[in-house]
Amino acid sequence: MIARAAAFLLLLYGLGFALFSVTLAAPAEADAPKTQAIVVITGGPGRIERGIELMAKGKAKRMLIAGADPSVTKDDLVRRIGGKRKLFRCCVDLGSESVDTRSNAEEARRWLTKHGYTSLRLVTSDWHMRRAEYEFRHALDKKIVIVPDAVRTEPGLMTLFAEYNKYLLRRLSVGLDI
After folding, report:
1. Quick check: helix, strand or coil at residue 126?
2. Distance between terminal CA atoms of the chain?
3. Which of 3, 7, 13, 132 has its CA 20 to 30 A from that of 147?
4. Residue 1 scores a pLDDT above 90
């Protein structure tokens, strides 16, 4: 009986991983609603660039780059990305208080409250979006509108496996109130 239960759980785990791997988040549709803010979570290629592209298109008023290294400046990012100095000066904030996805959501909550924003476009990698969106929905007021906007990547098997396990463990810890 225990072996059957273990086999069943292992089967569920494997099917869950397969489903997780083939249903990665996608970029938001072109007609997705405009939001007051964009929150970009650092840690992967193309994320900041995607946020700047959305700001340049007028998809939001202001952008937070959550989890930025404290030594990074706006001028560093302008040099790295190229151009857009005016956009960075007026409308981009660097958040360096967070170190993981959970604290990114907490940092974003404080920033959104400070500015009085009630909607945000969340930008992160496709493989990271499910957990990031879960953390943000858990940390933010339920009235805040979140529009997920994933950056397409080509994640490896180990990246997907690690992220799936992090997602499951976080859901379990929230469910058990740990």
Report:
1. coil
2. 29
3. 13
4. no
DSSP string, 16-39: HHHHHHHS---PPPTTPPP-SEEE
Q: Three-class SS of residue 2?
A: helix
Query: Nearest-CA neighbor of 101 among 62, 151, 147, 138?
Result: 138
Taking only the tens place, the pLDDT of each residue in 119-130 is 999 999 999 999
The domains of the chain are located at 25-175
Q: What does the buried/exposed string (b/e) look like for 127-157 if buried means 16 or more CB atoms within 10 Å of the residue's CB?
A: bbbbbbbbbbeebbeeebebbbbbbebebee
Superfamily name and number for 25-175: HUPs (3.40.50.620)
Q: Which amino acid is at 130?
A: R
- Helix (H) or strand (E) holding 83, with range, is none
Phi, psi of 99 (to 5 degrees): -130, -10
Alpha helices in 70-156 (DSSP H): 74-81, 85-91, 101-115, 129-139
Only one residue has tokens 């990246």, namely 159
Distance in angstroms (rounded) separating the CA atoms of residues 106 and 136 = 8
Sign of CA dihedral 33, 35, 41, 45: positive
Copy the structure tokens of residue 165: 């396990």
Taking the CA atoms of the chain, what radius of gyration do you get in angstroms?
18
